[in-house]
Amino acid sequence: MKPVYMLITDWCPHCKRAKEWMKELVEENPEYAKVEIEIIDEEKTPEKIKEHNFNYYYVPTYYVEGDKVHEGVPTKEIIKSVYEKALGR
C-alpha cells in the first residue's frame, strides 16, 4: 500500500467537503479504511510541507507515494481514485 498525504487548511470549504467524502467512501468500501492518509494542515505544520518538498498551490492536494495526484477542488470520484491508487490499482 502506498502512503497518502492530504494537504489542507482549516478554513478551506473544499477540504472540509473532501473529508466528508473520504468518510463516505470508507463506509461504502471498507477496504479503503486500510489506506493511511496523513492530513497536513499547511498553516499549522509548515515544516512538514518543507520536509516532503511538496509543490502545490491549491488545497486540498493529494500525494500518493510522492506523486501529486490531485490539486484543488475535488469530486467524490477524484477522491475515490486517490484510494484506488494507494491500493495499487
Describe the structure.
- The protein is of the alpha+beta class and 89 residues long.
- Helices cover 38% and strands 21% of the residues.
- A four-stranded mixed beta sheet has the order 2-1-3-4, with helices on both faces.
- The model has no long low-confidence stretch (mean pLDDT 96).
Number of strands: 4
Poorly predicted runs: none
Count of separate DSSP helical elements = 3
Spell the H/E element sequence: EHEHEEH
Characterize the main sheet.
4 strands, mixed
Structural class: alpha+beta
Sheet-strand content, in percent, reads: 15-25%
Q: Strands across the major sheet, in which order?
A: 2-1-3-4
Report the span from N to C terminus: 10 Å
Shape: globular
Helix content: 25-40%
pLDDT averaged over residues: 96
Q: What gyration radius follows from the Cα positions, in whole Å? A: 12 Å
Compose a concise summary of this entry:
The chain is built from 3 helices and 4 strands. It is an alpha+beta fold and 89 residues long.
Based on the model shown, name its key terms:
single chain, 89 residues, alpha+beta, four-stranded mixed sheet, Thioredoxin-like_sf, Thioredoxin-like_fold, Glutaredoxin family protein
List the helices and strands and how they pair.
Elements: E1 4-8, H1 13-28, E2 37-41, H2 46-52, E3 61-64, E4 67-71, H3 76-86
Parallel strand pairs: 1-2
Antiparallel strand pairs: 1-3, 3-4
